[in-house]
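Q: I'm building a small set of examples for a reading group on sequence design. Run inverse folding on the following structure and report the sequence directly after it, with nothing in between.
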């Protein structure tokens, strides 16, 4: 559903992207001290929560700390996401090294993420055959799948398995030493970054095994609560975030490149998800996602203001969705497949579950 940023009148026409970026230029300044402070705070937060997961005397506290560690990994990843866009600090080399550092807990190879996200996702957002993140299938494509793959597709879009989708379809298939089918280009830096995150994972697990020996705990238990659980929780956060950013009954996907370009995809294909709680701030404002797609150079610590500016200047053109679990469940039930001719979402039988999405 398109929710206007302000009331009254028909939605304003979307200006040229250069004009919109000109609006945002005065508030897009990057700050090295602020970026370093955010990095240090979240790294300390990561070590603290991980330390509690290892040293807490009660298993329930350890499990809770493991979940919190997964959330902190998501925060660190969002900092790396900004660095990968060269939006974190004004210094390109510093951004690259900070990005690699804060990507380590999520086991994300920096260079492969940079290509898949910056070039493919941002370059071709919601364009079928290019943007592979949560790309909806057509009814014919779904019916042509083998039975086991249809079952997996239903699991992915059930609403409870964004963690599994990201873990299998993004991280395993496209980020950790991807095959030539997923990444035809071969670069030495891809291999180096993959080896870097594998070395970090090995060090992380070895440290937990050593801690288990030192504290008299089961090594399997500590590896589970200190490594496996945080990694699964992190995958849940990132899978959920990318799902709700581009899956909505008021957001279109496109098959034809010309129609996609006319639809102003940098505005029309993403959602600003709002929260009554402080969750938006806790996730470093990544939910102010329209502003990010309009101008990737706006740092995360300026996105809230940039999003507000867009919604004031383009009333009715931004998809603003207040979050509720009822809305999320309704979206997961409605957005199974996509009819690119009728421009609407459908169920598993091809029956329309949304009105045609206007460009």
């Amino acid at each position: 559903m398109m929710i206007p940023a302000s009331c009254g009148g028909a939605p304003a026409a979307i200006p040229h992207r250069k004009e919109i970026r000109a609006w945002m230029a005065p508030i897009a300044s990057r700050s090295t001290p602020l970026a370093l402070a955010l990095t240090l705070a979240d790294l300390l937060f990561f070590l603290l929560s991980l330390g509690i997961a290892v040293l807490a005397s009660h298993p329930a506290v350890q499990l809770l700390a493991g979940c919190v560690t997964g959330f902190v990994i998501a925060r660190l990843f969002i900092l790396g996401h900004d660095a990968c866009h060269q939006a974190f600090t004004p210094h390109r080399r510093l951004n690259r090294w900070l990005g690699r550092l804060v990507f380590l807990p999520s086991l994300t190879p920096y260079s492969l993420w940079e290509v898949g996200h910056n070039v493919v996702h941002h370059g071709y957002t919601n364009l079928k055959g290019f943007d592979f993140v949560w790309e909806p299938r057509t009814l014919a494509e779904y019916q042509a799948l083998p039975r086991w793959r249809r079952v997996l597709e239903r699991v992915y879009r059930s609403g409870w398995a964004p963690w599994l989708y990201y873990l299998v379809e993004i991280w395993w298939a496209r980020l950790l030493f991807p095959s030539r089918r997923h990444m035809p280009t071969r670069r030495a830096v891809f291999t180096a970054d993959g080896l870097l995150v594998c070395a970090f994972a090995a060090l992380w697990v070895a440290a937990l095994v050593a801690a288990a020996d030192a504290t008299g705990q089961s090594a399997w238990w500590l590896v589970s609560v200190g490594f496996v659980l945080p990694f699964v929780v992190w995958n849940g956060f990132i899978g959920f975030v990318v799902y709700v950013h581009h899956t909505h009954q008021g957001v279109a996907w496109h098959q034809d490149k010309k129609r996609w370009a006319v639809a102003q995809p940098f505005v029309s294909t993403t959602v600003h998800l709002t929260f009554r709680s402080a969750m938006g701030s806790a996730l470093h404002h990544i939910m102010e996602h329209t502003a990010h797609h309009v101008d990737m150079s706006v740092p995360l610590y300026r996105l809230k203001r940039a999003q507000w500016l867009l919604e004031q200047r383009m009333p009715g053109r931004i998809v603003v969705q207040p979050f509720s679990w009822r809305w999320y469940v309704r979206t997961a039930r409605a957005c199974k497949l996509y009819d690119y001719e009728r421009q609407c979402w459908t169920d598993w039988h091809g029956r329309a579950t949304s009105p045609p999405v206007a460009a």
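The chain has a mean pLDDT of 89.
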